[in-house]
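We store chain and fold; example below:
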Amino acid sequence: MVKKAASTYRCAECGFEVAKWVGRCPECQAWGTIEQRGDTRPPIARVAAGAPSAPARPISDVDIETSRARQTGVSELDRVLGGGLVPGVVVLLAGEPGVGKSTLLLEVAYQWAAMGTGAALYVTGEESAGQVRLRAERTGNVHGDMYLAAESDLSSILGHVDDVKPGLLIVDSVQTMSSPQVEGAPGGVTQVRAVAAGLVALAKERGLPVVLVGHVTKDGSVAGPRVLEHLVDVVLQFEGDRHSTLRLVRGVKNRFGAADEIGCFELRDDGIIGVPDPSGLFLNRHTEAVPGTAVTVTVEGKRPLLCEVQALVGRSHLNQPRRAVSGLDSARVSMVLAVLEKRGGVLLGDKDVYTATVGGMKVTEPAVDLAAALAVASAFSDEALSPRLVAIGEVGLAGEVRRVTGVGRRLAEAVRLGFTHALVPTDPGPLPDGIKALEVGDLASAVHAVKYVPS
C-alpha cells in the first residue's frame, strides 16, 4: 500500500500553516490566502562551508559615505525619511485613491532632477505617459532629466533602467506590475511578491533608490501580502481627508531613521507644498471663548503639534445615548467619559456626547485625555475655558492625571503660539519660561482648577 503524501495548508501572506483549509488565516486574519501545498520540506542535512563573497572587515574599516542619505528636495518628506533617500533604499508609499500620492512623487522626481543628482525615472502602470505629463504641466513639475514610461511589465522596467540609468526610480503602483516568470493576475499575492522582490534586488544591486506606490484596503492597511512590508526598507502612510487640503505622511517602518515621524503637506490645485509649521492648522481662532473646546499639545515623532479638541453635549432622545468620535481613539474617549462621570461628577448617562479634533488631525496618544475630559465638562456646564490654556495629561481609571513624555517640549511650543497657562500632571519636570503651569493630581482637581484660569 502506497503511503499518501502529506499536505499542508499555508497562508500566502504570512506563511502560517494549518492542518486543513480555512477561509480566513488564523494568524494575519486575511481572507482567501490559504493554499494547499505538498510536504516538500527537505530533510535536515549538514551544510558545508562555502567561500564568502567578500572577507569580513572590522566595522571601523567599513565605508559609510556610500550609505549617506541624499536629500530629495522635499523637506517634509526628508524629515520622515530620516534625512533623505539612502542609496539602494526601497520605500513603499501607501494611501487611499485620490489622496495625492502621484502628485507628491511627481514633486519628488522634479526636485531630484532639478538638484542635478541624476535623472528620475517615473514608471506608471495606471495612467498613460500623456496623462502624467498633463499633471506635471499643471503642477509645474517638468524637467529635462525627468523620464516617463507607461509600463506594467517588470522586465520592461528593468530595460528602461538600463537605458536611462536613473538616480531615482518611482513605480506607480506595485499592484499594477507583473512578472512574466510568475503566474497569476497583476495585483495578486504571487505577482506582488515577485515584483517587489525583483525591484528590491535591483535597488540593492545598483544602489538605486526605489519608491513604490501601494494601494490600501478598506481598513486603511497596505494591500497585498504582508511580506511586502517586510521586503522594503521604509513604509510610509499617506493620509488625508478628501474634504481638506491637509495631507500627512506618517512613517510606519524605517530602517534608516525614526519610524514615528510625520510630514505635513497642503494639497493645492497647482501642486503640493510642505507645511513646516502646521500647528495653526489644528486650531480654531475664536473671537471669543466657546464652551466645549480645549487645546492640548501632541507629539508626533520629534514634532510637537497643538491640537484643539471640541465636544458637544446634549439631551438624548434615545434609549441608548449616542457617542460619536472623530479624530480620537473611540475606546479612550469612552473610558474618559466613564471616569469623568464617576470621578469628576459630570453626569452623562442621559446625554449625547460628540467629540472631534479640528483640521482632520488624528490623535491616539494618551496625552489628549485631559483635554478631551475638560472639553466635555465645558460643554456640559456651558462654561468656556480660557483660550490661553492648554491641558496635557493622561487620565487613569482611578481619576488620576498621569505624567506623559516631553512636557517641557510641548509647553515650549505652546509658549511660541501665545498660550500663557497650562494644566499638567504633578512633577512634570523642567518647564519653559513664559507659561504658568498648574499641577493637578486628579481629574476632579483639573475640572475645578480651570475655573480660576483668567481668560
User: Anything to note?
Assistant: The CA atoms of residues 85 and 157 lie 20 Å apart. The chain has three domains: 7-38, 70-276, 281-452. The longest strand covers residues 303-315.
